[in-house]
Recover the amino acids of this structure.
DNA sequence: TGAAGTTTAA
């Protein structure tokens, strides 16, 4: 039997563990109805009936939720739909299906056919991004060609999305080609675009490609401080300290002084090596060169010390920062709350949470995510839900990471109704579920023995075109084997095959 | 998301 959580009175559902599973019809989280996003507030100002838009979004979503095998099928399914389409409504629908290219793209095609509405450049960019994110690069390019043909739609924003998504998909060379060919899209190849390219390559583990691209283009476009900081940071993240050093020297050869960002990247690298002696040396060097560390630098050092279980030294950095007249910000507090929580100092973490507001630092989504995660770790359900409510009242938009620990907890405790309530709540807020979330659900349900539901999520993930992680698959199969669920096991095996084949054709 | 920091995990 699961422990009965003590929930605040606004969460109304039977507190008896067993009945939670099958009768929580009156379970109400007062979060969905009173939640108003910033855009909606704006919608109201220009007196758009946002209730109507919401209903239309729901209607379209219901149609799009069925599984279709192609965008054309989606267009057909929407054929008899008579909702009034508007730009903001299309944006909302696209956001909801941003990890599901078939409904998203099909819906966009249908929207184009509603002849009075011409999609804006922004909407085109969103669709390009969705296609890139779901690795449908061929279709993405077709759409880009269409944008060029129609004229006036392609911008640096579009190119940035293309380069970032290609890099993320491991297609470094294609990302470089996209940049090289920018003129063909009617755009100028400038340092801004080059910095985006280098940054995309660096951030997606393609530092080598970034360095090559830098050498290829540096004479065509004179690099600026951003360029070097991107490279230094990229090399540091890739643990290529000698190359980072080279970039730092190259920067100086161009007559650009390394700044607090350059030094902070180096510090972060040494923090990762746990070489705190070297970190201290750089901190001193920064002071002496008249380029003192800032709140970001201190956050990194404090956080690393905290993670290395050197809580005492981490607090020392906090003192040192205050002594040097550097003011903590929200991110700094977030880090402090995190390391204190991990060190088991929950009370201190809570005090910091109270203190930050008094010091003029508003808690943000990370603050809440951290606090909620800590509450879930300690099975403080009521506290976690209270925080969720608090963040919506602020308002502070929850995201995937807000819900992950809550979903995990629901799986563990077998609270299926609440689990589905939360999933629905996420969908309504446009928080699109991706592979990590599915893995969490499948794993959590395996652990608590709800294999039927685990299989359903596994299936849904494959039908969305996602390739399940191999350990998620193995775990599920093992559990099914253990319970002699041969039919289900075979089904899962076939789904995995299907997912693998899908991946190859992408 | 996008020149540096903070949540997070199979």
């Amino acid at each position: 039997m699961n422990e009965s959580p003590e929930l605040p009175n606004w969460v109304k559902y039977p507190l008896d563990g067993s009945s939670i599973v099958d009768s929580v019809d009156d379970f109400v989280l007062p979060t969905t109805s009173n939640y108003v996003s910033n855009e909606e507030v704006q919608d109201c100002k220009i007196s758009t009936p946002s209730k109507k838009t919401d209903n239309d979004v729901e209607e379209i979503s219901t149609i799009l939720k069925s599984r279709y095998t192609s965008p054309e099928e989606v267009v057909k399914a929407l054929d008899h739909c008579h909702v009034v389409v508007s730009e903001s409504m299309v944006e909302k629908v696209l956001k909801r299906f941003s990890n599901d290219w078939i409904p998203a793209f099909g819906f966009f095609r249908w929207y184009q056919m509603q002849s009075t509405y011409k999609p804006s450049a922004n909407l085109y960019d969103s669709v390009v991004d969705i296609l890139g994110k779901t690795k449908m690069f061929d279709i993405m390019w077709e759409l880009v060609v269409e944008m060029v043909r129609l004229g006036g739609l392609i911008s640096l924003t579009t190119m940035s999305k293309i380069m970032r998504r290609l890099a993320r998909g491991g297609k470094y060379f294609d990302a470089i080609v996209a940049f090289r060919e920018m003129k063909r899209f009617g755009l100028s190849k400038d340092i801004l675009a080059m910095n985006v390219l280098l940054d995309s390559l660096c951030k997606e583990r393609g530092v080598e490609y970034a360095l090559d691209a830098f050498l290829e283009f540096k004479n065509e476009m004179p690099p600026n401080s951003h360029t070097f900081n991107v490279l230094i940071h990229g090399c540091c993240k890739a643990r290529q300290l000698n190359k980072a050093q080279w970039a730092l020297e190259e920067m100086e050869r161009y007559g650009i002084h390394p700044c607090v960002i350059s030094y902070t990247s180096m510090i972060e690298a040494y923090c990762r090596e746990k070489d705190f002696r070297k970190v201290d040396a750089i901190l001193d060097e920064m002071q002496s060169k008249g380029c003192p560390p800032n709140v970001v630098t201190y956050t990194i050092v404090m956080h690393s010390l905290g993670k290395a279980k050197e809580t005492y030294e981490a607090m020392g950095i906090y003192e040192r920062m205050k002594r040097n007249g550097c003011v903590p910000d929200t991110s700094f507090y977030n880090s402090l709350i995190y390391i204190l929580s991990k060190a088991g100092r929950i009370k201190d973490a809570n005090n910091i949470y109270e203190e930050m507001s008094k010091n003029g630092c508003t808690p943000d989504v990370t603050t809440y995510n951290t606090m909620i995660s800590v509450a879930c770790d300690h099975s403080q359900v009521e506290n976690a839900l209270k925080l969720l409510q608090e963040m919506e009242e602020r308002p502070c938009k929850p995201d995937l990471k807000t819900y992950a620990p809550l979903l995990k907890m629901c799986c563990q405790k077998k609270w299926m109704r609440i689990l589905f309530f939360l999933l629905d709540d996420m969908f309504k807020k446009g928080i699109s579920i991706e592979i990590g979330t599915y893995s969490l659900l499948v794993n959590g349900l395996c652990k608590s023995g709800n294999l039927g539901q685990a299989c359903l999520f596994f299936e849904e993930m494959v039908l969305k075109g996602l390739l399940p992680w191999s350990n998620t698959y193995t775990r599920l199969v093992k559990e099914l084997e253990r319970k002699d669920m041969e039919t289900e096991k075979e089904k899962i095996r076939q789904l995995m095959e299907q997912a693998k084949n899908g991946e190859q054709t992408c």
User: Anything to note?
Assistant: Residues 1-48 of chain A have pLDDT under 50 and may be disordered. The first helix of chain A runs from residue 17 to 22. The CA atoms of residues 97 and 229 of chain A lie 35 Å apart. The two ends of chain A are 46 Å apart (CA to CA).
